[in-house]
Amino acid sequence: MFDFALFGSVFLTLFVIMDPPGITPIFLGLTSGRPVKVQRRMAWQAAAVAFGVITLFGICGKQILDYVHVSIPALMVAGGLLLLLVALDLLTGKSDEPTQTKDVNVALVPLGMPLLAGPGAIVSVILAVQHADGFGGQVAVWSAIVAMHLVLWLVMRYSLLIIRVIKDGGVVLVTRLSGMLLSAIAVQQIAGGITQFIQGKG
Q: How many angstroms separate the CA atoms of 30 and 102, rounded?
């Protein structure tokens, strides 16, 4: 029997971690200057990549991490460093240089991973799948994962309407703000990983 309580719990947990409203300015900052069709493609690509990564780790995440001897804190620090590099590009304006970003598919990195499918989401999914009881529980968990990624796609897809309203000047402002936001997320993630290392969880 479908577990609606578990569905709601997993969905809300992923919503808080993946933060669809918070991803909007970052998506706009990373995709600004590209044709609308490309931006729309990046929206579903980012959601698809995140879903693929989450699905992979949901099915065999614990085994993958154990096999390569990678701890969760190490994953957090690595993801944080990658996000910090992207944030610095946004803050310094390097993301406006065609030679640096126009040929790079930001939908894969950093949007798909590690921004959407980051350590927090990965760990939450691994635990949810492991603790789900029976067929109904598993269906509820995976339904919540699918629903969350549909929400992410819709938010990014329709955030493109914002670009038409704020114009070029607004895009530059959003890019700088998203760089600041992304740098804070990166530092928090790195700090969390280091804290867990110190506490002996790594």
A: 10
